[in-house]
UniProtKB/TrEMBL annotation:
Residues 1-44 are annotated as: Disordered. Belongs to the Mediator complex subunit 10 family. One of its GO terms (molecular function) is transcription coregulator activity. This is Mediator of RNA polymerase II transcription subunit 10. InterPro entries: Mediator_Med10. Keywords: Activator, Nucleus, Transcription, Transcription regulation. Component of the Mediator complex.
């Protein structure tokens, strides 16, 4: 039995390595509640696992940088261990990333490719929404004023 079969039989492993036990004796009310909240919670857990994997990969890369910076013959074995750890973690990150459905706008990717800050895209989108909201509010206020003045003339 491989580890994935073992984990599914015993429960699921959370992002922090804690095993969440499976319960087969849930009430119908609990089952309905879990069915409704399950996809969102599972998606959030998958995203947290990817974030943790990215953090761990960054830590391994930092360790590799330190090892390579002070490289000598005696540090060959730790270097190989860290390289293997990096490969394992990158594989883990790719596997976890397949479970996440994150859509990134092409504009954001183009900004990153151009060496710009992707927060510029967020700022521009928010400013555009604010502008459109103010235009809509102006139209609504104009209709209210027109209605008020027409009601005043009829009386």
């Amino acid at each position: 039995m491989d580890s994935s079969q073992h984990n599914s039989a015993a429960g699921s492993i959370g992002g922090n390595g804690i095993i969440n036990p499976k319960s087969n004796d849930a009430s119908p009310v609990d089952s309905a509640a879990n069915a409704a909240g399950s996809p969102a919670e599972e998606s959030k857990q998958n995203l947290n696992q990817v974030i943790n994997s990215v953090d761990k990969t960054l830590g391994i890369l930092h360790q590799l940088y330190l090892t390579v910076s002070a490289y000598n013959v005696s540090s060959q074995f730790p270097l190989l261990q860290r390289m293997n750890n990096l490969v394992v973690e990158l594989d883990n990150m790719a596997r976890l990333g397949e479970k996440c459905n994150i859509q990134v706008p092409m504009e954001v990717l183009n900004l990153i490719d151009d060496g710009k800050n992707p927060d510029e895209f967020t700022r521009d989108v928010l400013n555009s929404c604010i502008s459109k909201n103010q235009i809509t509010k102006g139209k609504t206020d104009a209709f209210k004023l027109a209605k008020h003045t027409t009601c005043g003339k009829n009386e």
